[in-house]
Amino acid sequence: KNSVIIGPRVKIKKNVRIASNVQILGDTIIDENVKVNSFTHIEDSTIGKNCKLGPFCRIRPLSIIKDDVHLGNFVEIKKSTINKKSKINHLSYVGDSFVGVKSNIGAGTITCNYDGKNKHITKIGDNCFIGSNTAIIAPITIGNSSLIAAGTVVTKDVPNNHIASSRTRQKNVKK
Questions:
Q1: Tens digits of per-residue pLDDT, 40-49?
Q2: Active site residues
């Protein structure tokens, strides 16, 4: 049935596979060898070669997704650049951000880019590993080859080649 919607200004290059229930709108460009899985929504963005998107992925306006990127299920990207070979596999929000080459953003990670008045920028370097359930409070810069421990709330810049962790110790108290 007619479950795919492709707007009149969309440009799609060769060998792109689009699954059911997909919307591609506005001034969107999709390069070669891209797989767009079901229930993905892309608007006014650029998608590089060899990317895999979705299912249930939302790419909002002014996003640039470079070559060989994987954006998985329930990932939302807004006004951000995701560089080559980076992965954001599931359940994450990345807004007003720059993600470097070969970085991995763990499940449940969010960039906290809005303070109630202004939008702020998050910069994540090359070869970074962001653990699951991480909140990155912008404006912030995470240096190249850094690791953010799962469950961390990042409130300060992280230099290159560092590990950041802000978890408190677990206490078990008898009822």
A1: 999 999 999 9
A2: 90
